[in-house]
Amino acid sequence: MKNIIGFIRQNFTFFSFLILQIVSLVMLSSYSKSHETFFGKWNNAVAGNVNSYYNEWAYFFDLKTTNAKLVAENVALRNELAQNFVPYDTSVKSGTLILRKDSLEKIRKFFYYPAKVVGNSFTLQKNYITIERGALEGVKKDMAAISPDGSIVGVVVEVNDHYSKIMSLLHRNSKVSAMLKRDRIAGSIEWDGMSPDILLLKNISKSALPKIGDTVLTSPYSSSFPAQLMIGRVASIVKDPSSNFLTLNIKSATNFYNLEFVYLVENKRMEAQSDIEQKGEGNE
Amino acid sequence: MNNILKNSVRFILFLLIQIIILNEIPPIHQFITPYLYFIFILWLPFGTNRITTTLLGFVLGYTLDMFTNTPGLHAAAATLIGYLRPTILNLLLAQELSEELTKEPSIGTMGWGPFTFYIFSLTFIHHFYLVLLEWLQFGDFGYFIGKVFFTSIMSMLLILLAELLLNRRKLKR
């Protein structure tokens, strides 16, 4: 016994080395998901703190890519929205007994594209927004532009290869079909050039009973905009006894001051719609 | 005291470099993992005795393991080179040099040849053992050989770079 203790004492360094090796190897071999929680408990005290500090820094430098990813994801989600689709009309009797198409399958009407804003004005009487996405990337005239939070921004008026110009809602000639959410009475949104925060909702029938704070949405009559996008809320009501229509001041929901991204909405049936709308006029 | 402080700073510094920079670099190749943290063991003063280097190796390796979620892997390898370090130093050093206990192994104190051999042998042992342990869990023989070889070369380059950057030759008087 004495000899053994003496031997261990002589080779104390070697034995401690051996013990540490064995400890390491046992830890390594017994490591599994269930051990992770055990180790996690006290490893996290040290490693977790350092890692969370480090992550904050790393995250900060990654914000740009993160942002781009989120924009792409938002577009993908918007493209999935049900209001972009038109269902097949199954109420019409067709000549054949068998429907050729699955009635659950729907036709896509609206497509969304992201675009980066590179120019923006809101102080003039005719304000435009320039975006970095042009005809080669799928932009067409009369496409609608909406802001990332879902409120409308304007309509594309000029397109070249890589850039396009959007006529902002803050433009004296801008005119967008809109409705009151309360009773779905439609009018049109214009701007009087006074304040970038306030839009006018004109041609609302006096039978409508709008209240202050009522929501104003895009109407289903617009060929550019999908229906029911946010425009703003009623701020005040202007009564004009000489007219049959009300004019409402609308507090715009869009923040025109800090636009960074807009989504462009393409209506796949725009041509068909404007085509039929113009045909009626020729007959008179 | 000064020595202890200096080495504590190195301990933290090289661990942070390993964790924050080298572990985050996208791998150039499957075989190449840049390892630098064990330079702390290589740079301990000549006079550090074997039991201290062994224990420090274990602590160093285990601390890194906490961050890489591989308990025991780096600890085992770093303990091994901590234990073997005095043996290799004794092989290489002339008697009078090994008596200057507060000096550290560097190109200046050892000369190019012995120092290169010193870091190469310990780097190789470290990687051999580390990748062996990794290989026992997964991988094939080609992976083992290739990774030991290329990772050793990578580490040698990093160590020489650190050596030249920090210019420890000044310590020679």
Explain this structure.
The complex is a heterodimer of chains A (284) and B (173). Chain A has a domain at 106-270: Rod shape-determining protein MreC, domain 1 (Thrombin, subunit H). Chain A has helices spanning 2-10, 12-29, 33-80, 270-282; strands spanning 85-87, 106-108, 110-120, 126-131, 144-146, 152-159, 164-171, 176-180, 186-190, 198-205, 215-218, 230-238, 245-252, 261-267. By secondary structure, chain A is α+β, with helices and mostly antiparallel strands. Helix content of chain A is 31%, strand content 31%. Chain A has 4 helices and 14 strands. In chain A, the strands form 3 sheets. A 6-stranded antiparallel barrel of chain A has the order 3-4-7-6-5-14. In chain A, strands 8-9-10-13-12-11 form a 6-stranded antiparallel β-barrel. In chain A, strands 1-2 form a two-stranded antiparallel ribbon. Chain B is mainly alpha-helical and 173 residues long. Chain B has one domain. Chain B is built from 7 helices and no strands. Chain B has helices at 2-21, 39-42, 50-68, 73-92, 107-110, 112-137, 141-166. The longest helix of chain B has 26 residues, at 112-137. The model of chain B has no long low-confidence stretch (mean pLDDT 83). Chains A and B meet through helix 2 and helix 3 of A and helix 3 and helix 4 of B.
Tags for this model:
heterodimer; A: 284 residues; alpha+beta; Thrombin, subunit H; six-stranded antiparallel barrel; 14 strands; elongated; B: 173 residues; mainly alpha; 7 helices; 69% helix
